[in-house]
Amino acid sequence: MKKAIIYSIAALAMMMAACTSDEPSTPHDADRDQGIPFSATITTDAPTRALTENASGTTIDAAWATGEKVALVYGDKVDVMEVTKNDDGTATISGTLTGSPTEGSAVTVIYPASAVDATTKAVKTDLLTAQDGLFATIAANLDLRQSSGATFIVGANHASLNGTVALATQLAIVKFSLTDGTNAIAAKSFVIKDGSDDVITTVTPSPAASEFYVAMAPASAAEFHFEASDGDFTYTYEKSGVTLAAATYYQSPITMAVVAGTMEVTASGYSGIYDKSAHGITVTAPSGAVVMYGTTMDEYNLDASPEYTNAGNYTVYYQVTKEKYTTVTGYATVSISKAEAQISYTVASISKTYGDQDFTNELTNTGDGAVTYESSNTAVAEVDSKSGKVTIKSDGSTTIKATVTDGDNYTYATKTASYALGVGTATMTVTASGYSGTYDNQPHSITVTAPSGATVMYGTASGTYNLSTNPSYTDAGTYIVYYQVTKPGFTTVTGSATVIISQAAGSISFANDAVSLALSATAANNTYTQGVTNTGDGTVTYSISNNTCGASVEASTGKVTFTQAGSVTVTATVANSQNYTYATKTVSYTLTVKDTTDTNGGIPDNDDYGDGGNPF
To answer: Hey, which residues does 374 pair with through a beta bridge?
Structure first.
């Protein structure tokens, strides 16, 4: 059912239609056809035309703009005239009439020309139905103005109107500002309805806006229903007793009430066998919703679902709230049954080497029973009774066993699990070096370097290690020393190294290679001994040759005994020894015996001194 607001536009259309024939006609620029030249002066009931909101923001100013168009509606014709702005605030409209009006015949001037329905020759009935909320759009298309009582003045070659014709503003302009009481509403659509909820105008701001302009028909004590949407929510507002006057600018902030939306909320509980995990309920709610939980009905004091691990039945209550949506409440149940469990080792046998780090063979425990561990041979490996960490003590083998007791939520059909542990010996780093040198009368031995804590034994025969002290050698020769290195948990290391002592170079020499003696009257004095200087330890023997003095020699000492004057060659011969070798093995000297009375007790008479006789 149409209300008075709609009637205002409809009545205007009917009034104009009465001034026209039933023949359809299309508005067109008159200069397209040959016709009667026309011009007239128009004004408006407001001091403005081209709409602008003035500096105060409380009124709208306008001025005619050259190039705007108005429609002349007469008979069955609608002719469009162009506006030329005048300095005095009026405007001149001009163009060509396509019809043949008579003197004094009625004509209606309508601005803007686009507001006229070319078929009905009246203002479009849907002029206000769809709007975009822009001030510029209203100024261009919806600032509806219309004359009343205008008639033609027709001349021979020109037509005009009966004086300056005033165009009366037909509509009101309302600037709406929308809020929900807290925040501005960025409306994507704004629908204005009458008291019977019939749609009058739909405003579609682009982009969405909380402030926009709407051209509205005048109303008196009317009821309006408003509905806005921001794409997510719908807002409503109603007002009765509203009066809107034409040619009036209204600024209308309105606080709209949100229409509570309906949320799609689902809740699911949990039902299963105990699995060591915590379980709660699952509530699925729209993005931005706040879900609160509780363990007592109507008490929602937890911001996350309570979770349960142990077997039992638990009821969890929930409340879902979201601004502008209806609150949703409900509950779901967590049901956890007791489970069967077992323990097992995935790895049933482990090989290690002595010296390896502590380790743990992971035990799979599908329950929560307490587990203890033990080793069957603690000399080989010890195990932490609580953690199962194994510490290797020696090489050998042992069994690590885990024993579980029933827990609160599990029972175990088989309560033990075990694995075999074999520990092999580790490899030691052992180095050995011998000795090689020339005899120096010092003891020499091999050198064995072994890890701390290792025991080194020695021997002089392969496979026999009966010496705890490293044997050493002084005399020249080649000696093989065998060794054995042992340490608990490590592989025994054996080997050998060699001591090589080469003979040193020796030499012999006489201090004097020629000796002269006087033959003594006393036979016991007729001896002489000159031993060799021997840098080695080779055995020296003495011999004589070229003997003309009746000499003899002691082979071991080199003592020469002579009986008469003459000479003899004394030769010393040395033999290589174990520790020395001689490049030159013989040296000699010549002993000369003179036949002279020995007055000096056998003191050698060397050639360096002549016989001076006895001066005393």
So the answer is: 401
44 φ, ψ to 5°? -135, 165
Q: 341: helix, coil or strand?
A: strand
Structure tokens at 90: 């009026």
**Chunked in runs of 10, what are the mean pLDDT values of the chain (616 residues)?**
34 42 40 71 60 64 82 95 90 93 95 94 95 92 93 93 92 96 96 96 96 96 96 94 94 94 94 91 95 96 95 95 92 93 95 94 92 97 97 95 92 95 94 95 96 95 95 95 94 95 95 94 92 94 96 95 96 95 96 74 45 50
H/E stretch holding 176: strand 172-179
Strands 199-203 and 219-229: unpaired
Q: Which two tokens stand for residue 585?
A: 């093995």
Element (H, E) at 9: helix 4-17
* C-alpha triplet 457, 462, 463: angle, nearest 5°: 65
Q: How far apart are CA 213 and CA 141, in angstroms?
A: 13
H-assigned helices in 495-600: none
Q: Which residues pair with 129 in a beta bridge?
A: none
> What DSSP character marks residue 524?
G
Question: Per-residue DSSP letters for 237-263?
Answer: EEEEEEEE-TT-EEEEEEEPEEE-B--
Question: Are 165 and 40 spatial neighbours (Cβ–Cβ below 8 Å)?
Answer: yes
CA distance 452 to 432: 15
What's the full length of the chain, in residues?
616
- CA nearest 316: which of 303, 301, 297? 297
pLDDT of residue 54: 66
pLDDT confidence of residue 45 = 60
Q: Which residue has the tokens 């937890």?
A: 302
For residue 100, what are the contacts with CB-CB under 8 A and spacing of at least 6? 36
Whole-number Å distance between alpha carbons of 558 and 327:
136
If you ran DSSP here, which 8-state letter would residue 503 be given? P
- Residue ranges of the alpha helices (H) in 395-458? none
Q: With beta carbons less than 8 A apart as the criterion, state whether 95 and 80 touch.
A: yes
DSSP secondary structure code for residue 477 in this structure: E
Distance CA 369, CA 341 (A): 9
Which structure tokens are listed for 1? 């059912």
At 52 the pLDDT is: 61
Helix (H, G, I), strand (E, B) or coil at 79: strand
User: Which residue from 256, 233, 261, 280 is spatially nearest to 321, judged by alpha carbons?
Assistant: 261
Phi, psi of 6 (to 5 degrees): -65, -40
* Token reading at 560: 């020469």
Q: What CA–CA distance (Å, rounded) separates 61 from 333?
A: 68
Q: What is the C-alpha to C-alpha distance for residues 410 and 387, in angstroms, rounded to an integer? A: 20
Q: Please spell the DSSP secondary structure of 347-386, one letter per residue.
A: --EEEEETTPPPB--PEEESS---EEEEES-TTTEEE-TT
